[in-house]
TrEMBL record:
Belongs to the GTP-binding SRP family. SRP54 subfamily. Residues 96-280 form the AAA+ ATPase domain. Residues 97-290 form the SRP54-type proteins GTP-binding domain. Its main location: cytoplasm. The gene is srp54. It comes from Halobellus clavatus. GO terms for molecular function: 7S RNA binding; GTP binding; GTPase activity. It comes from the Archaea. This is Signal recognition particle 54 kDa protein.
């Protein structure tokens, strides 16, 4: 079970419940405090942590453990269910033709994620193509091209064209035989009006089936505002959390999930094209609490 990987202090508070058939409020408070500590240090937004805490507390006190279930197992089950509720299920991604638009700030890992996702879809037997519309960051074209070569997937970009909207239009046309079109976009160092205007125009041309927001795992509370702005502009249908091979636990991304009413689609776990995983709640919860 996922909660086998709990942090050691949470584990020991749960272990103190061993053998008890009823819980008192103090026991529950102790456990909730441990969970709060872990989640806050994993960058989960304080309001989300508070909501989760009150749900766990209420349920642990009010719900009777089913006959034969120990107090410890009962609390574990509630904690687990509430954590799954917090992190959400994986974004649904049908294995069929589709257009995916990537949004995010510069350096978040969009270009890398575009190539990784293309690689992932190719392994699922689909024919992906990456369209690089980032005319803002020098080197974006070469980087995307090289990564797509490594991933052995189709690539479209035009280093001589300065209009990203035109590149999107031409690229979709040039790669029309592909099943999955992944449109990479330019970022900026911060949320700027021209970034939002540009991505709105690209969205209008690409008509994506889903737009994914790419976030660095180290993002803290900034995730919320980014998510809101991009969601208002193009509608965010899922989140990609990158750089989970580092020390950051990625809890900030949950603010984006909450803000957009979406879920996490993929996790980036390294710099090479194969370093991508589909999100699944159990692993992410272990990481947040670990
Ligand atoms: P973009 O500006 O959003 O397109 O970001 P890039 O794709 O260029 O990524 C920025 C930097 O982060 C690059 O040096 C990437 O190699 C690195 N990067 C992206 N994803 C990951 C990841 O999952 N793990 C690690 N360690 N590095 C990553």
């Amino acid at each position: 079970m996922v909660l086998d990987n709990l942090g050691s202090s949470l584990r020991s508070s749960l272990d103190t419940l061993q053998g008890k058939s009823r819980l008192d409020e103090e026991d529950v408070e102790e456990i909730v405090k441990e969970i709060q500590r872990s989640l806050l240090s994993a960058d989960v937004d304080v309001n989300l942590v508070m909501d989760l805490s009150s749900s766990i507390e209420e349920r642990a006190i009010e719900e009777e453990p089913p006959a034969g279930t120990s107090a410890r197992d009962h609390v574990l089950k509630i904690v687990y269910e509430e954590l799954v509720d917090l992190v959400g299920e994986s974004t649904e991604l049908p294995l069929e033709s589709q257009t995916i638009l990537l949004a995010g700030l510069q350096g978040s890992g969009k270009t890398t994620s575009a190539a990784k996702m293309a690689w992932w879809f190719s392994k699922k037997g689909l024919r992906p193509a990456v369209i690089q519309t980032d005319t803002f960051r020098p080197g974006a074209y070469d980087q995307a091209k090289q990564m797509c070569e490594r991933a052995e997937v189709e690539f479209y970009g035009d280093p001589d064209e300065s209009d990203p909207v035109r590149i999107a239009r031409d690229g979709l046309e040039a790669t029309e035989e592909a099943d999955v079109h992944i449109v990479d976009t330019a970022g900026r160092h911060a949320l700027e009006d021209d970034l939002i205007a540009e991505i709105e125009e690209i969205e209008a041309v690409a008509e994506p089936d889903r737009s994914l927001l790419v976030l660095d795992a180290a993002i803290g509370q900034g995730a919320k505002e980014q998510a809101r702005e991009f969601d208002e502009a193009i509608g965010i249908g899922g989140v990609v959390v990158t750089k989970l091979d580092g020390t950051a636990k990625g809890g900030g991304a949950l603010s984006a999930v909450n803000e957009t009413g979406s879920s996490i689609a993929f996790l980036g776990t390294g710099e090479t094209v194969q370093d991508i995983e589909r999100f699944e709640p159990n692993g992410f919860i272990s990481r947040l609490l670990g």
